[in-house]
Amino acid sequence: MKINVSEIPPQGLEIQVSGEGRLTTVKAVSPYQLSIKIVKSGSEVFINGEGRCNVELQCSRCLNDFEYNIYSPLDIVFHPASELNKEGCHELQKEELDIVFYSNNLLDIDDIANEQLALNIPMKPLCSAECKGICPECGADLNTMQCNCKGSNVDERLKVLEKLIKREE
């Protein structure tokens, strides 16, 4: 869905959008839901609202797939891309981090939704906080089974430290 910036009324727009996510790093299992308010002030465009989507992630401990609900609060300021050429190089300030640029007088709502949802995918997803992971020796899923590994597999480079521990005792 594309919105022409010049057609945004003075009171703003309230939009409810549902669409297929094009998230490149994960598989979306439900369409995204976007609820936003778009307000224009001069050449600036403000978007406030929230986005939601269910995605399939892989647990970083046990490697099992699980469904995760992404919630993304939106608070974005858009400036025309023509402003980029006016300013010289400078260090970004904290208040400038939420500024995005639009070109050709158009806002692409689908791109905004996909970008904001992708930014809220956890770096190390966990199926649950209690996930035990997999056994480093046999690879068994410790959430579903108990393995018979002793867990004493020590890296050969660290065997010297084992002697120090025994000497202290």
Separation of the first and last Cα atoms: 70 Å
Main sheet properties: 6 strands, mixed
What low-confidence regions span 5 or more consecutive residues with pLDDT below 50? none
Overall number of strands: 8
Tell me, rounded to a whole number, the average pLDDT.
Answer: 80
Detail the topology: elements first, then pairings.
Blueprint (H helix, E strand, L loop, with lengths): L1 E3 L8 E7 L7 E2 L3 E10 L2 E15 L6 E16 L2 H4 L12 E4 L3 E3 H11 L39 H10 L1
Parallel strand pairs: 6-7
Antiparallel strand pairs: 1-8, 2-4, 3-5, 4-5, 5-6
Structure summarized in a few sentences:
This protein has 169 residues and is of the alpha+beta class.
Would you give an account of this structure?
This protein has 169 residues and is an alpha+beta fold. Helix content is 15%, strand content 36%. It is built from three helices and eight strands; from the N terminus they run E-E-E-E-E-E-H-E-E-H-H. It has helices at 83-86, 109-119, 159-168, and strands spanning 2-4, 13-19, 27-28, 32-41, 44-58, 65-80, 99-102, 106-108. Strands 2, 3, 4, 5, 6 and 7 form a six-stranded mixed sheet that branches. The protein is elongated. The model has no long low-confidence stretch (mean pLDDT 80).
